[in-house]
Amino acid sequence: MGDTTTVADNSSTSTSTSTSISSQVSRLVEQAKELQDLSASLISRTSCEEDSLRQRANSLHSDIQSLLSSIRNSNLDSNHSHKLEEELFKARYILTEGDAGAFLPSKSHGRLLRMFLGPINVRANRKDVQLKVKEEYNTFRDRTAYLFLLFPLLLIVLRSWIWNGCLPALPVQLYQAWLLYLYTGLALRENILRVNGSDIRPWWIYHHYFAMAMALISLTWEIEREPDCAQKQKGVLLFLKWAIMQGIAMLLQNRYQRQRLYTRIALGKARRMDVVWGETAGVEGQLWLLCPILFILQGFEAYVGLLLLQTALVGVISEWQVVTCGILLIIMAVGNFANTVQTLVTKSRVKAKMKKSKSKQELDQGSVKHQ
After folding, report:
1. 223, containing H or E segment
2. pTM of the model as a whole
3. Rounded to an integer, what distance in angstroms lies between the CA atom of residue 292 and that of residue 303?
């Protein structure tokens, strides 16, 4: 009798526990459905609000550009016109550099991003996330600039001290593989920065495409040793010396030009997502220091390219990799030189325009005083 009562109690307890668990499961399922409905409603409402803000941002940006053109083509007083332009520049800066800039049209993702990442949107909607992307890019450049300098320097030192003036193939190919990683990483990061509003010149990205191709091709280039090792590795040695100079130039750019860029951003003359590459920023004293180094680098780069073509033509190393790398080096040297000159011309025009505007304002003020 007691056993029967115990069995009945156990059965009742088991049934009660099962019912409790079932009710909890049902409750959690209902909560999940409710949360899903609320989330879908929020996303739909947010999407509608984003579309509305996007239309307003595009319309406002278009109105600012249109009004700027009207002011420049009008017959307004120069001082008044200058003040109106300054106000519109401030409005455009607020629009593009604030959170509203996320609703403006972005630049194309580019083939490289689509090839490596697929159809993924890499544009950040929040400005702080975009700035973190830029800071990561600057950190990557700082870190790799030292390696760009130390890696070829170490190879040249070991060549003289340990390898008896003849570079083995493996260390050189490891360096070329690192160059492929470096230029691929820079190209990917710069494409992402362009999508997020950075004003990087297309040439610097194309330059990295050429450098990626050269590094990839050079990995298949057989490093000849004896006999006549010094003659056969002359092009490799010159390239390593050029890389040391390039590393020094990168360190100078990171050190001086970025400080100037931060100043320009604070003055509203540059956007927060802008970055320094090549010679895109710098005060007059820095240009006097950097430009000779850049021109020497470009000339040396072209010289190494011509030397590689010469070694292929005279039959010292008659491989297609030598010819291709020589042509790529010459293309990059010419492109870098053209962009450096273009930047200097642009800077001189801007300075001349500022001086002319300043002189005109002083004349206007003087005429007002005489009246």
Report:
1. none
2. 0.71
3. 16
